[in-house]
Design goal:
The protein is mostly beta strands. It has 2 domains: 3-55, no CATH class; 88-152, no CATH class. It has helices at residues 3-11, 57-65, and strands at 27-28, 35-39, 42-47, 51-55, 81-82, 88-95, 101-114, 117-132, 135-152. Strands 5, 6, 7, 8 and 9 form a 5-stranded antiparallel β-sheet that branches. It has a 4-stranded antiparallel β-sheet with strand order 1-2-3-4. The protein starts with a helix and ends in a 6-residue tail after the last strand.
């Protein structure tokens, strides 16, 4: 395997990481420039201009559907980022009869940046909040509707 791909895999935790173990040998990308290796939980692509970058999850699936590095996105320029549950974008808010508040919420789950754009996976839905002991707490929540956003060119900052 290309030493940069092995180094990235080891940096992420090798077989103990989310990537797991390699599923085959390293390949050369169709453009003859980059290299790739697939793992149980994702892929690592290497390009001399961007280094080795890990892609996984729904970002990887969308990138594959778009044609990998030969598609409109090009090569990844950073690892896919798991944004995490703490980053919510809130929209409309309304009061409920029981003193709680209902609002529309959106959670960005994964983000992948590529040479020519970005892929974001996010979920939207409704949350019901209640003021309890001086803190706002989620009383009920449902963020089930998955939305895939694809940006070509400049990507909005998160």
């Amino acid at each position: 395997m290309h030493s940069n791909i092995i180094d990235k895999w080891r940096e992420l935790g090798a077989s103990g990481s989310f990537l797991g173990n390699p599923t085959g040998s390293e390949g050369v990308c169709p453009d003859g420039i980059g290299h790739y290796a697939h793992f149980d939980g994702g892929s690592i692509h290497w390009h001399p201009s961007h280094g080795a970058q890990a892609t996984w999850g729904e970002v990887l699936e969308e990138w594959a559907r778009s044609g990998w590095e030969r598609g409109s996105f090009g090569y990844p320029v950073q690892d896919v980022r798991d944004v995490g549950a703490s980053e919510y974008l809130f929209g409309l808010m309304g009061a409920c009869d029981d003193g709680s508040a209902s609002l529309s919420a959106e959670k960005v789950a994964e983000m992948g940046r590529f040479e020519n754009g970005s892929i974001l996976v996010h979920y939207s839905g409704q949350l019901q909040l209640r003021w309890t002991d001086g803190n706002i707490k989620i009383k009920e929540g449902n963020l089930l509707r998955k939305v895939l956003s694809v940006f070509h060119g400049d990507t909005p900052a998160l």
